[in-house]
Structures
1.
Amino acid sequence: MKIAILSDFHLGYERFREDAYRQAEEALNKASQTADAIIIPGDIFDNRTPKPDVLAEAINLFRGLSKKEWGAQVVEFLGEGQHYTKTPIIAIPGTHERRAQDVMDPVDLLGLTGLIVDVSNATAMLEKSGEKVAIVGIGGIADERFREIVLKINPRPVDGAFSVFMFHESVYELLPFNESFIKLEELPKDFDLYVCGHIHSRLESSVHGKRLLIPGSTVLTQLKSGEQEKKGFYVYDTLTGKYEFIEIDSRRFVVLEIGLDGHDSAHAVELIESGIKGMLGSDMPIIRVVLEGKQKSGDMEMELSGLPKRYEGRALVEISKSGIDISRIGEANLGLATKTFENMSVKDYGIGVFIEKLKDKNVNFGRISPIELLDILSSEPNKDKAVEKALNELAA
Ligand SMILES: [Mn+2]
């Protein structure tokens, strides 16, 4: 049986809403042409309570596929919930869709429509000409609780079937930021294949001597340098153990690293602009400019804030100042009236103060940096919404 593994569509992701839809559509269509079944390890939606028009996007994506003649069919369902279709599109909710237990999440809802089969804490048995494949799923949950859930549920492969364990979690060896992440050796044993979502870059590893495949997201969300590769999905053949990564036509993303050391602000702005111009094309790329080091003199805050607007329609430009040297923040306590941070913008000064405060409070960041957190908090004019967004990111 050929199984396509597609993940993290993030439908409704505000910033790149059309990309999220179009790239999910392309991945699903391509997958349906090459595979007998599709499995989706989480984050179909960007939000746990998507608006009706986002739900409509998902319904539109899956409705056509449910009418297709598939190589495999769902023949049995075990565990929590039930299935309402034989169409072999099997999914779990991810961390972005997670809601309290016994409360409907949007993947439950898709399951109810009979467009997909939700295997959160359940197993779907697929069959194709006598060959059986079991998809055993655990829905996305806070990283620190996953270990306990695995022990409690104790997912097991199914005798006589090629068994796939599908989950949506941070794994310590792949993201060594936090001791609370599950380790590869702690994942349930004896499965034939392991499939994980959550991580937005494509990764391959092994668990208990078997393959672990992480296809990455179909849409760009984190703007990390590892996301510059083409997006796509895996197709795994259960009979041969062979698999391939199939690329989709995803929007181009480039990270431009610009060192500020020794440059005055006028020269630095010139460097940034010529870098951006070198990356332009007819495809309207997303360009993240990462500034590093310490500029010699001058303030370029004004020029920088005008850049995204200047390239509107030609590129989506984002400026990251997280690499700027703010080592002199300590001295800045002397106050705004002194000259000790004349080369530093008020925002950079603010970032320094923010980081110090967070350090005092021993905040556990998980996967996002203090600068990213500050960006989230300052991107939203409504205070409550900003806090909600930040908490969602911290929990993601
Ligand atoms: Mn995700």
2.
Amino acid sequence: MTKGIMILQDWWFTTLMGIKEPIRPPLRGDIKTDVLIVGAGAAGLAAALRLVGSGKKVVMLDKNICGGSSTGKSAGFLTPDSELELSQLLRKYGKNGAKDLWEVAARGVDIMVDNIKKHKIECDLQVQDCLFLGKGDSGRKDVEDEVNARKKLGYSSTMYKESEVPSVIGSKAYSGAIRYTGTYGVNPLLYAQGIKQVLLENGIEIFESSEVLSWKDKTARTHLGSVTADKMIFCIDKPKPEVTKFSTTVYHAQTFLSISEPLGDKDVSDLFPQGPLQCWDSDLIYTYFRLTGAKRLLVGGGDMMTTYAKNDTTVPRVIDKVISELKEKIPIIRPLRFIQYWQGRIDMTRDLIPTVLVDPDHPWAHFVLGCVGLPWATFCGDFAARNVLDDKEVDNEKYYRYFSPSRKFFLPLWLEQLLGKRIVFTVNNAWAKYRQKDAGKDGAVLDAMVG
Ligand SMILES: Cc1cc2nc3c(=O)[nH]c(=O)nc-3n(C[C@H](O)[C@H](O)[C@H](O)COP(=O)(O)OP(=O)(O)OC[C@H]3O[C@@H](n4cnc5c(N)ncnc54)[C@H](O)[C@@H]3O)c2cc1C
């Protein structure tokens, strides 16, 4: 097995070389606007795009560059499937609730892909079906559950029995698989930077390296300036208590990624006999992989010890192990060398559903927090902006209930004082994913969830 030395660097940053304007100057001085958007990840960018052409003056601030945090570190899987699979949503929310939430993420995928096509954004958009791979007996059951959930909700899919899996992936190590369409791969940092250009061309003012350190009434302050706005939409990650008291609703899970040297054509067809797919397996801390347009293999995963760690883990140990285990399962990739790795802590909530709210004490301020997945973030940013525009076509009541900060969780927040944040989060998270049940009446969990 060839083992090279990898460097710690987000591959997507490498692909920014040569783009028109990778960095905008920071905000200097005091300005006024109609709408201020803080945070330019998938959520903030979707909010800003929604406001284009609305007649509102819009300013956007990011402490890094557009897409510089989770969005630009992500693996770029564009799928409605995130941390919660459809069968889990079905168990948790019943048929109507599961459909509502699946469609949230599916709508997020559509918004992103429509915008990429409409604005001709060069971000390596790949049409890539999903392949969820079962491992062992429990994984076989997970695949069957997923197939049944999709049938129940009227979504099509193709199931592969153990003996059929090698027809789609060059491995005999999986016990079953389910495949479905309507999903894509994307270079998420080029996507963010492409949307940035569209926004700039449409008159939106963007300042990077401009962290909002505090805000009072309608004025937000950065280290060199301030913005006074009628409305504010905060789409930030790792929120600090001085920026919002709802920072307590946000937790993190760490995941690791690595990119390989390009594969040859023969290796690609051996790896994906029916064409490239985006794959992940049925493990609790799952391994995921897909091919980029340049035929590099992107592999991601983690381990139990570091997923809920408080600080970033920067050594290659975790991803090295993920790659070695994947190589055991897929012989074709054994000689493949991986050249860069990076990690990121994904913001999430205790039940993996985002928190979106209008601040009751400051009704001009919206918050979009803890979105797990680019499509969820995109939907929620767009949703918040539509609310600012007073768009009557959106079912506000429904979504604000799903995304309410006061929904109930298995273990309450105060237990963190006794048990610590990590333990309470892990238990709540596992409960939401594996145990929480709709109480029989469709949507009953939702009714019981909001206090
Ligand atoms: C390694 C990794 C792999 C992933 N893979 C996938 C995947 O394949 N598919 C998928 O759908 N999802 C994936 N995700 C999850 C996905 O990236 C996130 O859920 C999504 O990007 C969240 O978008 P966001 O806009 O809510 O947050 P972010 O992208 O984190 O954006 C928030 C922005 O706010 C800015 N900010 C924060 N505080 C301030 C402040 N005070 N002032 C100004 N700006 C501020 C930050 O700089 C940042 O740009 C992955 C995440 C990671 C880390």
